[in-house]
Amino acid sequence: MIVLGGRALGLEFAQMYSHMGTRVTLLQRSHRIIPEEEPALSDALRQYLEEEGIKIKTGVRIKRIYQKQNETVVVATVNGREFEARGEELLLATGRDPNTNLLGLETVPVGLKQDGAVRVNREMHTTAPHVWAAGDVIGEPMQETIAAKEGATAAENALSGTHKKIDFFPVPRAIFTSPQVATVGLTEKGAHEHGIECACRTIPMSKVPKAIVIRETRGLIKMVAEASTGRILGVHILADGAADIIHEAVLAVKYKLTIDDIIDTVHVFPTMTESIKLAATSFRKDIDELSCCAE
Ligand SMILES: Cc1cc2nc3c(=O)[nH]c(=O)nc-3n(C[C@H](O)[C@H](O)[C@H](O)COP(=O)(O)OP(=O)(O)OC[C@H]3O[C@@H](n4cnc5c(N)ncnc54)[C@H](O)[C@@H]3O)c2cc1C
What we know:
Elements: E1 2-4, H1 8-19, E2 25-27, H2 39-51, E3 55-57, E4 60-68, E5 71-78, E6 81-87, E7 90-92, H3 144-160, E8 173-175, E9 180-185, H4 188-193, E10 198-204, H5 209-213, E11 220-226, E12 232-239, H6 242-254, H7 259-263, H8 274-281
Parallel strand pairs: 1-2, 1-7, 2-3
Antiparallel strand pairs: 4-5, 5-6, 8-9, 9-12, 10-11, 11-12
This protein binds flavin-adenine dinucleotide.
Flavin-adenine dinucleotide is lined by residues 9, 99, 103, 135-137, 142-145, 147.
């Protein structure tokens, strides 16, 4: 199978088919998989997938795709050098577009963005006075969970005249590969782009006692904090169960907690969630010098 696309869906399906015995080649246009995420997460996940036998090529430009007998042939280039990838199946996971083109929204008129997404403000109100919108149709982040929140907000604002707003900053993102990716808030690059001076710490999961106990030490956790205040701006996890672990970080980002708030909070030992406390502690101390649970 050839998989086009190296973000959430492409990676999840590539690994699922690979685990079922399919030989998978994944082609990604940008220079790394999950390019919006921290480079350390992309690099480590790529390494794990390649170790499992998935072939990954990045920086790929597709030139043409054609069918030859029972095979699909993808002709592409990397750094100007042409190659062919052949597979019995081709899986397209190159992204989703809001499905608005046949709705006649221009007659209302409801404003659209360049990619076809319905333009809304933070109250989910479109440019038309009596039209609200929610879900994938308004564009990123396109997830089940935020679609539900947007829907509830749109309905409440439309029907009861309230002006509830959605804060998109603490919306977590997850990729259900093994190990999983789960992230919230700003990356280090994102903090720089917002003009925020940040401090960052990264710890490998091999420093987390529970990860050692369950022999699943692949991955890492990176914490991004505002340098002057210690406020947690982002947390980026690649680990077994990352999508479960992330919620403490979501609350930290949403309620503007600092690294010292996390350090001051007693965590259960041994748990994978302790990784968040260890990442926070690593801003203040060398965690290699600490005995279990010490702050
Ligand atoms: C393979 C895959 C895996 C995913 N995994 C996850 C995940 O693990 N976690 C997560 O949070 N999100 C996941 N998502 C994203 C999630 O499915 C979407 O964000 C979510 O379904 C968006 O909800 P929605 O109601 O906006 O749109 P949809 O669920 O797409 O619902 C839109 C509905 O509108 C209908 N419709 C469209 N046009 C018209 C029309 N003209 N008239 C009437 N009806 C119309 C459609 O038939 C559909 O029933 C995944 C998406 C995909 C494709």
